[in-house]
Amino acid sequence: LPLDERLKRRIIDGERNGLEADLDASMADGRAPLSIINDILLDGMKVVGELFGSGQMQLPFVLQSAEVMKTAVAYLEPHMETAEDGGKGRIVLATVRGDVHDIGKNLVDIILSNNGYEVVNIGIKQPISAILEAAEQHRADAIGMSGLLVKSTVIMKENLAEMATRGVAERWPVLLGGAALTRAYVEDDLRSVFPGQVHYARDAFEGLSLMDRVMT
Ligand code: B1M
């Protein structure tokens, strides 16, 4: 198989042996680490999602694919260009309560960290109380929540309601992202019930441009 195709296959098949050599070869060919992730590996994850969704792939294999994805991202990260240090602002990032998906959240972490933001990544399955505590403790400038399950979109709504109840809705701009969210849900449904700023980010790059916007 051609190199790009082989890398994509590695994600789909959860095949880790020789992964680093292929990643090195791709970078030696002149492909930027971020392009390897976005244009090749994420395509593989998309196929995994489709296979799983249609019952053609079982969960343990999805997990293996996710592990290979994470290994690849961790391997590529040191090769990425870092634009600035963490002086542009600080964001607390979490996957919401009940949700374990963290590949997207961790990509957002990498993109923001490499572009001048300090990221306090508190992990998966985080209740709103823990998110707010971290934001308070680290004197964050913004809060980012990720979640991939349909259920997580409801949790996000509850989280915003909780922020309003606690009177901190206007204290932190909130960025939301994850596969089950839609722009309309965030910008119409959620915005209409939240007195603060809430933004939808389709991907990590939109997350970055939103941060650049809310921080100025
Ligand atoms: Co799960 N899973 N999974 N899964 N999984 C999905 C989400 C699903 C759509 C698959 C499917 O059915 N086709 C489906 C959800 C269906 C639904 O809710 N209607 C699903 C399910 C059902 C489940 C379980 C319930 C399965 C089960 O146990 N029976 C279970 C849930 C457990 C739980 O959370 N309580 C489960 C478990 C898992 C694994 C553990 C095996 C694994 C996760 C491993 C890990 O993350 N460490 C896994 C995986 C890998 C997937 C799929 C295949 C891929 C997700 C992924 O990593 N994509 C996924 C299928 C899919 O998404 N279509 C699926 C790549 C990643 C980069 O994309 O996270 O969307 P994503 O991030 C994007 C953007 O969304 C955005 O930026 C990124 C790109 O730049 N973004 C943000 C994300 N967060 C952001 C935050 C921001 C800004 C942008 O600012 C704060």
Automatic annotation (TrEMBL):
Source organism: Micromonospora vulcania
Family in the record: Belongs to the vitamin-B12 dependent methionine synthase family.
Domain notes: Modular enzyme with four functionally distinct domains. The isolated Hcy-binding domain catalyzes methyl transfer from free methylcobalamin to homocysteine. The Hcy-binding domain in association with the pterin-binding domain catalyzes the methylation of cob(I)alamin by methyltetrahydrofolate and the methylation of homocysteine. The B12-binding domain binds the cofactor. The AdoMet activation domain binds S-adenosyl-L-methionine. Under aerobic conditions cob(I)alamin can be converted to inactive cob(II)alamin.
B12-binding N-terminal domain ranges (all copies): 1-88
Protein name: Methionine synthase
Domain B12-binding residues, every copy: 88-216
Reported function: Catalyzes the transfer of a methyl group from methyl-cobalamin to homocysteine, yielding enzyme-bound cob(I)alamin and methionine. Subsequently, remethylates the cofactor using methyltetrahydrofolate.
Transmembrane segments: none
Superkingdom per UniProt: Bacteria
